Sequence to fold (178 residues):
Amino acid sequence: MRLSTKVKLLVGVLGILASSSSFAAPARVGAQIGYGFNDAYKFDIGVHGGYTMDEMPIYIGGRFDYFLGSSEDTVLLGTTFSTSSSVWILGIEGGYDFDVADDVMVRPYLGLGFAGVKASATVLNTVVSASTTEFAFWPGVAAYLTVADGFYVGLDMNFRIISGTSAFAMAVPFGMTF
Fold:
């Protein structure tokens, strides 16, 4: 098969996908709860919103997540050592929406933004803390189910990469479309 034929075939398939979009209205806003599998992440709460273009099912959106992190107390030789950490992430996302059934849509995506990482330790009533803001990106995939007219719930899985450290995270997004 010649390259020009392959390109025409690909354009045709994308056109069919774009014209057969049946999932929901193009704009969505919502929240999510989740979990990050790394001590600095743990329990997650967040908000998201975005828009899927009319001509092609390309999604552009934004996200804010706050991972509550972890706290730990350790006693060594009668002295208590306390540590804690947390992470916030703010960024934009771009993806492609695939309708896999009447009420089910799958979106692979890539997010880019910034992450604030905070850590602190307490030893002998002395607190030492540090925080930094770093570049972050997160490839992921989300699946959404329309549960009622204008409302959705889903599963979002992504891999957060912040300046050389990483964590797998899962969330349950929910919200509305309009």
User: Anything to note?
Assistant: The longest strand covers residues 126-148. The mean pLDDT is 87. Helices lie at 3-19.
